[in-house]
Amino acid sequence: MSEIPKRYDHTAAEQRWREQWDQWKLHSWDESRPREETFVVDTPPPTVSGSLHVGHVFSYTHQDLLVRFQRMQGLNIAYPMGWDDNGLPTERRVQNVLGIRCNPHLPFDPDWTPTKVEGMKKKDITITEVSRQNFIDACSVITEEDEKAFEHLWRRLGLSLDWDEQYATIDDLSRRISQLSYLDLVEKDQVYNLDSPTMWDIDFQTAVAQAEVEDRPQQGLFHDIRFAVEDGGELSVATTRPELLGACIAVVAHPDDERYQPLFGKYAITPLFGARVPILAADHADPEKGTGILMVCTFGDAMDVEWWKQSRLPVKQLIGRNGRLVPVVFGQAPFDSVNPEAAQAAYDQIAGLTAKQAKKKSAELLAEEGSFPGGGVALAGDLRPTDQMVKFYEKGDRPLEFVPTRQWFIKILEHKEALMAQGEKIQWHPAHMKTRYDHWVEGLNQDWCISRQRYFGVPFPVWYPVGADGESVFDEPIFAAKDTLPIDPQYDCPPGFDESSRDQAGGFTGDPDVMDTWATSSLTPQIQSHWGVDDARHEKLFPMDVRPQSHEIIRTWAFYTIVKAWMHHDQVPWHHVVISGWILDPDRKKMSKSKGNVVTPENLLDEWTADGVRYWAARARLGTDTAYDPSVFKVGKRLVNKVFNASRFVLMQLEGVEGDLPGFEHITEPLDMALVDRLRMTITQATSAFEAFDYATAMQAAEDDFWKFCDHYLELVKLRSYSEEDTAERRSALAALTWGLKTFLKLLAPFLPYVTEEVWSWAFASKEGRDRSVHTSAWPTVDEVAGVDRPDYDGVFEAAVELLAAIRGAKTKAQKSLRWPVARLEITGPEVDRKALELILNDVLRAGHVDPEAVSIDNGPSPEGTRFAVTVDLAEAMPE
RNA sequence: AGGCGCGUAGCUCAGUUGGUUAGAGCGCAUCCCUCACACGGAUGAAGUCCGCGGUUCGAGUCCGCGCGCGCCUACCA
To answer: Of A31, A81, A647, A777, which residue is 20 to 30 A from A166 by alpha carbon distance?
Structure first.
């Protein structure tokens, strides 16, 4: 046994164990072992350019707790680390830090090296355009620093990740597998490209998918606009988007709406632009809302898009990709007008404006005399405020528009049932999180748009022929061969072509878009398993056991991953999804950087120890959002200290022992048997909780019993174990202490990996094999102590605790030290309790400093809720 | 507007299939340096289990209706 320090220096110990674990390769996946002995985790790759905050510490600790339990079960752990450096956050960060922009049409420049412009004045920075490959290289330079920060924190926190298994979502392997996935879906006819109105962010100038859209409340203004009816009369339309009046293709009311039934089939004439538009019946018109009749524009909202698709009416697109109104010519299809000159004069005043500016200007024009056909004012009454929900890109600042563009889609709408069935095959923890998945799948209304008009990302491995007329033939894409991946169609040429025919009539052109980042991160299981690259490895890792993640990305990360695994493999990607909650600040809002309420994790580790911080995370139940409460760190640190000191005490008792530590066959004293019996229950509870992924309950069971071990058992057994003589009584104590401590260390090891390993190394570690580290030692089972008898009566431990508390209470009330001797102790109680008490009476009397001669025990009633009535008379004075 | 979850001590949270007198920690109060630990320990005070109604011998727990909070979906005339 090595020298035991008096105090726990957590900083030094943590560092020492980190290095030792690395040296032992304790967390490495063993590729040679079979799948059934392996536990595979689909680790969430953090967005590396995001900030590190306590939320990360929280959820990554949860994964690690489960992993550590499985490792102690003897399983081979595959727990890799991924980095999400693909996509907009990285693109923006790299642009800002290096002062560059990606231009995928530029050739790769092997001599270019990134230079930081951070801290320079804005006017001194000249933006350099670089090729996509140079941009990707620059990204890896910048993200490397961010990854270092994560890795440093993760290591300090004691996450048992396999650092030899890392990937990044923009690296060659990830790009290769993303492109392979796309080509596989092309072969399976699950992907198509289409020129159609799509949700479009005017600032990022890219298409976005349904999952990336969020609704935000906005205040809109109803404009009541008078339309003339061709055969005479008029109608009034209420709209919040008067700037789209020129895009109006029809006016619709509900088929049952008697007010408008006489008008169906007639035509209306729009004010200002004099367009002749049909008046039609449509189910989506709500008679209660507005005036009950509305204008359909291309495109004001998703309903307009839906209705337009089945209407066969032309598109009159006014909103451009930059969000400004595009120039159009009135009098030419589709912008026909009964008065082209007036229409053009009106439109020229709003062309080039943003939608917001055009809205205001349109209202002014509509309020002018003569704006209504044949004289009068088209804008009726006052503008009326209305609360509306408007679709935004989740990262965007201005509302989405529907703009016709060519995009790639994965078919998901026609697979709702199958995807729902896949959700059924996965165990969700907690179970109610599955309803979020179900709701999302039920509510799908668009196929998955996977193309983005950005520069930094995984390109589509596709080219298009360019016809003799110079137009790209999008219906005849040329796909890359799978064995050439990853490719970039901006540099690489399709088979049979060379660079000279790029973008030439009769030649080819590369697809300019990149994939949605989810198209890559939906493949994290396949990236880790090296699907399509290393079949043997794939078989050993796929499907995985567990996907840990948080609940807000069920509709994206979980959903898309399930989609891909089903389409590629007809399998679920993993058998369990484990959902962590959020850390909320005291106002019950999610902690996030933008709200300025994040706490830097490294300081927490310094102050409260890594184990203490892990304790804090482990206290939160699965899937439950938890208020940030720093007082819990203190409790964690207290537990760490307690483990250290209690262990020191136990091992001091063992100091004189020759040879092996006493085995549990020496456990003969009733109190010691009672300790073993308590631990049987604790082992059972902790194990079944962990098997259900409920680490919080597992920890609570271990922690509660450990405190009882310290506060009660150690106090009771102390004086018996102090004895110098080698008696059976003492040997029983030492055996129980040894086994008890060893078991508690194991039960607490997943939560407090550092301090338990430190203590383990003093007494229990072997040179080789699983017992070298507590973290690979076997998780305790009740079978180990099958040979230890139970005490003859129940409640032995509880009876001892109750009597000792009565003795201590008397001393505390008298404001005496707990060592103060007891002159007389009278105990009365029912027979069954007295029998139990008698089994351990000597231990209690020793711990309470009671002379056995001063005790009387009688049959009699005890007060409600107690076993005994106890009278304690203290001695007059403390003996010298 | 639908759905999911939640509402228990000043605070953060446990509370199994309904079953004596509802628990823990923090905080608070009083006390104790004791040969593992004062980075410790002992003892104690503290609750209308959100409200109303119902089922039941019995409800924090089950059912109904409200109220409040969070989230997920839907909602751009």
So the answer is: A777
